Each structure stands twice: as structure tokens, then as C-alpha cells.
Amino acid sequence: MAEAKWCGQDSRARKIPLNDLPQILASFKAHKANRLKNPSSLGFAQDKEKISSNVLCPRYYDPQGEKELTKLEGTHTLLQFGRLAEEGVLRVGTGDEIGKLAYGTGTIPFIRTSDISNWEVKADPKHGVSREIYESLREKQDVRAGDLLMVKDGTYLIGTCAIVSQADAEMLYQSHLYKIRVNTNRYDLNPYLLLALLTSPVGQRQVRSKQFTQDIIDSLGERINELILPVPKSQRTRDHITNLVETAVLKRIEARELAKEARACVGS
Description:
This protein is of the alpha+beta class and 268 residues long.
């Protein structure tokens, strides 16, 4: 298997100096001669017995991602997202599509994929809904402070995460987002630590390998359950990561609220 990022030409068929195809060919020849020593995304062997659900997308079996996780085994506990969901450590849900006619009917935020960036929900989401619409879905969506929102469908935004603050809790969110809640558990996993794990390079690399194209958009779908979370074994490290994320989140919330207050003061 191999996946080329560059093919020697751009989208207008103009020649460019980047071309992965010769390396892929060389890797294939080395594989045929049993001399493939450095497997990478430009050429690696995959056992037929390890092909999952007839998936033949090379990035799904990313060998470099596997290497990264293997290197962490000594210092981290590798937990599968789906197993944690089965144990009740994580509770995952998705939102609802309320229809365009509901947009602009009120001021309660309707959070979409574009409203999430840098670990936070935007202070001024594009669409608001009425109190009546909110109340009709409030109990079903059950958004609480500490929940994570993660982009499920789209393109480059898939895997983007935000944590819900107390000020954000009154909201609705669309079906292209996961809502992830961390319950009391024996792994010392908390929302801030989970946020760091999901958005870390090793976490995002897995997300990229698990997103598939459906019609015109990509989707992570139920493959979120295949993600491996590398939780540091060191209590000190876990606490340090948690404190860093919590501090960053709280400072951003404070800055956002100050900005709101400043804007409100202009017209007061």
C-alpha cells in the first residue's frame, strides 16, 4: 500500500518539483524483492489478515502512526476510545439539524462546525434560535459545562475540539458534531486531559487516517471508537497537562467575556 500526496503536476497539469510516484515505485520494487526496510506512507506491506471490513484506503493503516503509538507504550497507557465508551467512562452523542427556517429566530446559539476553533466555542456564533426551539431539544441534547464538542463531518475541520464552559452551556449543536462527556473513572481521565489527547499530534494523525469521504464531505463516523488515547502513566504528567489546558481555557473564556463587555459598553 502507498498514498501519494504529490504527483509531479498541480491541478492545472503544470509541472511542479514535488512527485511521490518514483519513491512509491521504488518501494514497490523493494517489497517485491523482500528488501523493503523503511516502510512509510510511500510504501508499506499490510497483512491480508489485518485488513479491516474490506477497507483498502492506505492511510487507514498508516504505519508511521502505529510506530508513534508503539513508542509510547512504555510511558503511556494506550486506551481505545470505543472501550472507554463501552465501560461508561465516555458518553458520546450527536446533535440535530433544526433547518434553516430556525436560523435567526432567537439569540440562543446553534453551534455548527465552523463555530469551533482553538479549544473554544466562538463568542458570536453565526446562527441563533428561539427559546421555544431550544426547549424542545434541551433535554435530548443535554449540554453541560465540561462537555467536549468535536467536529465529526466536514473536511479540514474534522477532529477540531472545544470544551463547553458554564457560559456556553445554553446552546444547541448540529449533527456534524460529537458531544463527549467524561464520567468518573479509574483512569484519572478528565475533560481537560481528554481535550489535550484528542488534539495532540498523535491524536490528530489518527483522526486523519480514520476519516473517509462520503459523497462530497469527509466523515469520521463510528471510527472515532478506533482512536487510541495515549494517557501518560505519570500522575505528575497528567496533572501538569490538565493544569495547562485548564489555565488556557479559563484565560480564553475570561478574554472572551471581557470582549463581550467592551462591545456592550459601546451602546450602553
